[in-house]
Write a structure and sequence with these properties.
Layout lengths: L2 H5 L2 H8 L12 E7 L4 E10 L2 E10 L2 H14 L4 H15 L21 H17 L4
Antiparallel strand pairs: 1-2, 2-3
The structure holds zinc ion (ZN).
Length: about 140
């Protein structure tokens, strides 16, 4: 299989073409912009909170389909989570992307599994997650 075909699975294409939670939030309490100069990707994530829970998450940016699809998947993942749960989700995902943890087969995120074999693209997949992590005050 070609690299392109392997990387751009149906799930990734779907999130890239119909991004979930794309946009900005007027009263964002978390906002973080991050670049991936290796690929030219950029993403801004923002969130509002209801007490400790993530009330709303949006992302904007441009770049390759991996970076934008992964950002879209992340927004769906983090809504409703506490800060601690969000931190754990992000760390778990990043552990999967460096091969330290298995991708659950039934999870949409498993669509990004093929990226692991192309180390130069891993940063594309983790960009939005790292931005959110920084927004949470984790460096
Ligand atoms: Zn990229």
């Amino acid at each position: 299989m070609s690299m392109m075909r392997e990387l751009y699975t149906q799930v990734i294409l779907d999130h890239y073409q119909r991004p979930r939670n794309r946009g900005k939030l007027e009263d964002a309490e978390l906002e973080e912009h991050l670049l991936n100069p290796l690929c030219g990707d950029e993403v801004t994530v923002c969130a509002t909170f209801d007490g400790d829970k993530v009330a709303d998450v949006k992302f904007s940016g441009r770049g390759c389909s991996i970076s934008q699809a992964s950002a879209s998947m992340m927004t769906e993942r983090l809504v409703g989570k506490s800060r601690e749960e969000a931190r754990a989700q992000i760390e778990g995902f990043k552990a999967m992307m460096i091969g330290e943890r298995e991708f659950p087969e039934t999870d949409d995120l498993a669509a990004l599994k093929g990226v692991i074999r192309y180390p130069s693209r891993i940063k594309c997949a983790t960009l939005a997650w790292t931005a959110f992590q920084r927004g949470l005050g984790i460096r």
